[in-house]
Amino acid sequence: MGALKPWHIAVLVVVLILLFGAKRLPDAARSLGRSLRIIKAETKSLADDDRDLAEKADAQAARQPLPPQPAQQPPAAPPVADQVQRARDN
């Protein structure tokens, strides 16, 4: 019952020729092939994007925080001479 017999295909071809005409069938088949190629490429692209997002999420989950850095002391300020000493030096 579910098998496709050769006469089914012949009837389908005759109906298609009657509906669309012999001149338009090659163009229709070409357009259908292009559409299927585009759909296949887009589906593959979406699958690649999903995989890339999953890899990025795994990489972010694997990140560890940096160990704490020892506190750095500010550099010592140069000695400040008082105003009287500066006046004597000049």
What does this protein look like?
This protein is mainly α and 90 residues long. The protein has helices at residues 6-20, 24-61, 83-89.
Summarize the structure.
Helix content is 67%, strand content 0%. It has three helices and no strands.
Write the layout of secondary structure elements.
Elements: H1 6-20, H2 24-61, H3 83-89
Largest sheet: none
Q: Classify the secondary structure makeup into a structural class.
A: mainly alpha
Shape: rod-shaped
In terms of DSSP E residues, the strand content is under 5%
Total helix count? Answer: 3
**Total strands:** 0
Mean pLDDT over the full residue set: 79
Summarize this structure as a short list of keywords or feature phrases.
90 residues, mainly alpha, 67% helix, 0% strand
